Description:
The structure holds 2 protein chains of 2 kinds. Chain A has 7 helices and 7 strands; from the N terminus they run βαβααβαβββααβα. Chain A is an alpha/beta fold. Chain A has one domain (2-192): 3-Layer(aba) Sandwich (Rossmann fold), CATH 3.40.50. Chain A is globular. Helix content of chain B is 40%, strand content 20%. In chain B, the strands form 2 sheets. A 5-stranded parallel β-sheet of chain B has the order 2-1-3-6-7, with helices on both faces. A two-stranded antiparallel sheet of chain B has the order 4-5. In chain B, strand 4 (109-111) and strand 5 (117-119) form a beta hairpin. Chain B is globular and about 55 Å long. The A-B interface holds A 10-12, 14, 40, 44, 46-50, 52-54, 86-93, 95-96, 98-99, 102, 115, 134-135, 139, 142-146, 149-150, 153-155, 157, 174-175 and B 9-11, 14, 40, 46-50, 52-54, 87-94, 96-97, 99-100, 103, 111, 114-117, 136, 142-144, 146, 149-150, 153-155, 157, 172, 174-175.
Amino acid sequence: MRTLVVYCHPDAASFTSAVRDSALAALRSAGHDVRFTDLYEDEFDPVLSEAEHVNHLADPSTKPAIARYVDDLRWCRSLVLIYPTWWAGQPAMLKGWIDRVWMHGVAWELAAGSARLRPLLRNVRSITVVTTHGSSKWVNALEGEVGKRTVTRVLRSMCSRRCRTRWIALYGIDRSTDAQRQRFLARITRRLGR
Amino acid sequence: MRALLVVSHPSATSYTKAMAAAARRGLERGGHDVEELDLYTMGFQPAMTKAERDAYHGVDPMVDPAVQLSAALVKRADVLVFVYPTWWGGLPAMLKGWLEKTMVPGVAFVFDAENKVRPGLQTVQRIVGISSYGSKRPYVMLVNDNGRRVLLRALRLNTGWRTRRTWLPFYGIDTSTEDERIAFLDRVERAMAAL
């Protein structure tokens, strides 16, 4: 399956980079056709500019700086996001990729006279998130599962009606043991490798 | 009281900037001292860098001078007021990055001996959010109002127990009328004057 992996972490030696390696190996061994984006490596600019805001209804082809990201998103049938959860949600870098790339004409359109967004990423049949949380599952529940719902309710609403979402998370990484982290990597291999 | 306004919008003529101006007028009318961080105008860099990530758990986690300034203002603020447009159900990357970089160990929280997070924003008496939404309220409720939850729950967990919360939402801005927008600015000003 055509799979786009979007990875976000500033440190090449982080645990999230090990998560990335396990995920990519599992996806490739399962025979998926993988495109990979490393937002930090690309020095992606997460700031939606004034020009982009003013021209937010302009055709995507008028924004060549993000053309590759748009092309990848339209190409994939499966989207995999790999990132650390910070302040309950996606890091600013990844949020900026959403703010800028999931734009009008790519992720949605607004028919004349309608107040309802029409989804355009019908090609996306599944979204998988692989993330780590510093805090416990209990604290995340108390905070309202912000990161999870941004994906399962907001992003998903612009994808295929049958789009499935998978959430693969390690909670409490700040206080985790090496054995727990290794088990998490094994879980990624198992779940993405089929 | 001392209020810190944190404002995030790329355009100087935006409704968000009008909301921020209304908040400032109200706070000043109420006799509060107001300081303001306009993140786009400052050219704030929201993506946490490798150097910042490396420094995060160290003695001095703040590498960026704009972050040092932000943290100094947060530490002497009694009220934090966030003004922004809701994008994709949550905070714009600019504001999300400001939180990630400013609300670091030693400012928003400290790690205790067992590496558990303990609140650090003990002087903050109130958190206020003022945000416009493209969607109407039922849709915002359906998708979980994620920006509000970051500020009023996740950030709130790092303040004292008695910290109060105020949320001023303007839903459905895409289909709103001029009268509705003016009325909301008036509501913001009155709410801030009455803090």
